[in-house]
Amino acid sequence: MDVETWDVDLLSISAHKLYGPKGVGALYMRGGSYALPIKPLLFGGGQEYDLRSGTLNVPGIVGFGKACQLCTEYLSEEPVHIAALRDQLEEQLFCSLPSLERNGAIGHRLPGNSSLTFPGIDAEALIVNVPELAISTGSACTSGALEPSHVLTALGMSRSAAYSTVRIGVGRFTRDDEINRAGNLITDAVLRLREASEQV
Question: Which domains are seen in the chain, by residue range?
Answer without folding.
Answer: 3-73 (no CATH), 78-199 (3.90.1150.10)
